[in-house]
Specification:
There is one protein chain. The protein is mainly α. The chain starts with a helix and ends with a helix. A hairpin with a 3-residue loop joins β1 and β2. It has a two-stranded antiparallel ribbon. It is built from ten helices and two strands; from the N terminus they run αααααααββααα. α2 runs antiparallel to α5, α3 runs antiparallel to α4 and α7 packs antiparallel against α8.
Amino acid sequence: MGNFLTRALFGAIFVIVLVAGIIFHPIAFFAVFLGITLLASYEFYKLIQKNNCVPQIATGLIGAGLLFTSCFAYTYYNNASLFALFVPLLVLIPIIEMYRKKENPFGNIAYTFMGLLYVALPFSLLNFLVFPFGDNQFHWEILMGVFVLIWANDTGAYLVGVNFGKHRLFERISPKKSWEGSIGGAVITLVIAYLISLYTKDLNTIEWIATGVIVVVFGSMGDLVESLLKRSINIKDSGTIIPGHGGLLDRFDALLLVSPMIFVLLQVINQFFR
């Protein structure tokens, strides 16, 4: 019972902070998701250290913070000048490694870049989800809808899989996931996407259904990719930052692949259908 209460309490706090960061104000969004970007990046680099590599944690965190801030400044203030600082940082990463005198230098360089690509970039692209159309309007409903769809997919897949799952989806990486659960999660997600389209104005029904399809496909893949990472390091949870829920990568694994694909969808919508 104590573990259940701990999980429920910190789960509720996590959701409240996340939702508040999405719906209140662009600056609240910036503060909450910049913090999440930095913490998730740090968690990734600490995980990689368990794989006998020594990524440049400080450089990676500076890069992650600079990338997220650059994207926010570009989308909210229409100011792209901070990108001029981010690009030289990328050049500095291999140069810095020459002076660290660590084993496996190119592995360290690669994992430092990987933290920016796998963690920092997807979170940074969230700026383009809340400012998708170049109109300086804060379209928080899109990002909130994406999170609702991710949660619907996860919850639906779990409930259907527990009760009806018999055929393993990808047993080598995640033995508990089933095709039945995935199909059940997909159906529930698409129904929720349709319902969201009835009460929001930023995207139409077809666009929300397309968003739901992306969440189903790439959200599931994101979950499996993070499971592959943890299995390669032989750990159960990515961290302990949220008591009873594991780490931030465990909470946002689906988003890491969903975010870039939603970004592409919104660019297509803005280019051809607006």
